[in-house]
Specification:
Elements (H helix, E strand, L loop, with lengths): L2 E4 L9 H4 L3 H5 L8 E5 L1 H9 L4 E7 H4 L4 H5 L5 E5 L1 H8 L7 E6 L6 H4 L5 E5 L5 H13 L4 E4 L9 H7 L8 E3 L9 H9 L3 E5 L6 E2 L3 H5 L3 E5 L8 H6 L2 E4 L11 H12 L3
Parallel strand pairs: 1-4, 3-4, 6-7, 6-11, 7-8, 9-11, 9-12, 10-12
Antiparallel strand pairs: 2-5, 3-5
Length: about 280
């Protein structure tokens, strides 16, 4: 049975991970081996456990211990569970807990793009996407619609931030991912060169009169295809588009010029999936 600890002091340092550390501090970039992330809800936590992630501790309402969270707690007999009623927990975290359960987990060791793409035929490449909701939605679509991996430019939002994990419904734990470099000098030239060296045809999703429609047979025929998607506001950088092998767009109707990047990703992933 996990160690159940009733919260009596909201300032206790062991609660910092849930209440007082920023996403950047949780990530612990200077010492990655000490990095932590927060997963919410029994379902998402269970998905993380299935993928081999290790829990550090739990924070939950008392009623969850023998209720919806009982299954994940049974899988973590050595974990510490900090508990209180809902009002105390909201006072601690500053927000309502999703389904009343949080879990602090150890971050995995970073992987390289080459590692996650070793046997991949279709990958999503994200440039400068900083909205955590879009990151989560893209991962969910990538998992559902046949992407073998997701690669992120250095400026993208962390896929293991709390909101991205929640929106993805835990699929960030199922789809392999890596960054194409850690600073802006490594994208786009160096990052795209790495993709080309791995044998990928690169397809930039962008608005361009000369772009191929997303259902062009040549794209589907590519043995290895990297679908490159840009930031919510400005789209892909001109240099990125110029360095890709093809520019691709989703045909629109009713005068609509584009879709949100999360929606565009889902359409592109479905159409361009390996068959």
């Amino acid at each position: 049975m996990p160690n159940i600890v009733e919260i009596t002091d909201l300032s206790a340092p062991e609660l910092d991970v849930y209440a007082r550390l920023t996403e950047a501090q949780l990530r612990n970039k200077l010492e990655p081996e000490k990095g932590v992330f927060i997963a919410e809800s029994p379902k998402v936590i269970g998905t993380a456990l299935d993928a081999g992630y290790k829990p550090l501790s739990f924070l939950m309402e008392r009623r969850q211990i023998e209720g919806p969270a009982a299954g994940v707690l049974a899988r973590c007999p050595d974990a510490t569970v900090y508990t209180a009623d809902r009002a105390v927990l909201e006072s601690l975290t500053g927000y309502a807990l999703t389904r009343g359960v949080l879990c602090a987990m150890h971050r995995p060791a970073p992987r390289t793009a080459e590692e996650v793409c070793r046997n991949a035929r279709r990958v999503a490449v994200l440039e400068g996407i900083v909205d955590s909701t879009n990151i989560g939605a893209i991962f969910r679509s990538a998992a559902a619609l046949g992407m073998d991996a997701v690669l992120l430019s250095p400026s993208c939002c962390d896929p293991l931030c709390r909101r991205a994990i929640r929106v993805s419904m835990g699929t960030v734990f199922q789809v392999p991912w890596a960054r194409l470099g850690e600073d802006k000098t490594q994208w786009p030239e160096a990052g795209l060169a790495r993709l080309h060296a791995m044998g990928f045809t690169t397809a930039a999703m962008a608005l361009d009169d000369r772009a191929l429609p997303v259902d062009d047979p040549a794209l589907q025929a590519a043995e290895k295809l990297a679908i490159v998607l840009g930031t919510e506001g400005d789209g892909l950088a001109a240099e990125t588009i110029a360095r890709c092998d093809a520019t691709v767009m989703i045909p629109m109707q009713h005068g609509v010029d584009s879709l949100n990047v999360g929606a565009a990703a889902a359409v592109a992933f479905w159409q361009l999936r390996a068959r």
